[in-house]
């Protein structure tokens, strides 16, 4: 499909039921949420898409949050209908939240998975960088060597697999899961990553984002794993700001909780998506047990 400025966007959908649009992370990556779509296919018609400049979508700027919000609205209009539920992961969680703030009348529910919160005062990056190095363990030396030089496409994939392996709690399966994320390898758009990351950081530190979250009249479910190397306290600011929020914390899961605890993830998300509007409780916080 095409956005309103003619940029071609790759999309895919499966399942039956109310529309649920998935927003992948990055920025600069491609959709890797096929497993999420499969888990939720019995409860929703899941719509996946590659953000502009990423994966199978056209390499076409500009790379701005506003432009990505407009692209998401085009996906909603052409594939989902007047109103949709959304699920965003990592950077995609922030994108979905930004969209809900700007277009609350077009959003029925929002699932915010493994985001990094809205706290402009206490940055999460130092903790993330320290945890990343610890989680890499024996792979740290190779990851550092690849980080500090110009990389071929094959080396770029190798570097990404090593870094993504730190997003999984179980060391015995982490590399295999990361390899799967990198297959097929569609290449990281670093220009997109830099532009979007810079803009998000600037907006969180200068605008009234917290105030806008406090007035968001959309039910939100926050889902995260206890073993995510991005500190979970960073999301507390968002949980405290939202007026209608639930939070499901999956014990023993990392940054992609649906991979390491698919049953717990499906239980939390399907329960939230299928609950009656009048039965959606405010400020429910529960921790689901480690399936291992």
Automatic annotation (TrEMBL):
<feature type="domain" description="AB hydrolase-1">
    <location>
        <begin position="18"/>
        <end position="261"/>
    </location>
</feature>
<dbReference type="Pfam" id="PF00561">
    <property type="entry name" value="Abhydrolase_1"/>
</dbReference>
<comment type="similarity">
    <text>Belongs to the peptidase S33 family.</text>
</comment>
<protein>
    <recommendedName>
        <fullName>AB hydrolase-1 domain-containing protein</fullName>
    </recommendedName>
</protein>
<dbReference type="InterPro" id="IPR029058">
    <property type="entry name" value="AB_hydrolase_fold"/>
</dbReference>
<dbReference type="InterPro" id="IPR002410">
    <property type="entry name" value="Peptidase_S33"/>
</dbReference>
<keyword id="KW-0378">Hydrolase</keyword>
<dbReference type="InterPro" id="IPR050266">
    <property type="entry name" value="AB_hydrolase_sf"/>
</dbReference>
<dbReference type="InterPro" id="IPR000073">
    <property type="entry name" value="AB_hydrolase_1"/>
</dbReference>
